[in-house]
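I would love for you to help me understand the pair of lines that follows before we discuss the fold together.
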Amino acid sequence: MMITLVFLGRLAEQAGGPTRQLPAPLDWAGLLGALDTGLAAQVASDRVRLALNGGLLADKTQLRAEAGDEVALLPPVSGG
């Protein structure tokens, strides 16, 4: 089974699309390793939040996703 990554906002452009499938299980190191260097650096920044199955993780480095889970990457909100 797979895990679905969801890229929101400008992260979707950088990822080349809004979703990607990765094999389960997935931890923080595995997530970063599955992304190209530039995108991984953005995701690792303090400005990008991470949600697992709709719930924000207080510490994204504690990510533990299993088969069927959805991991959403949320860029900072820009406004005006």
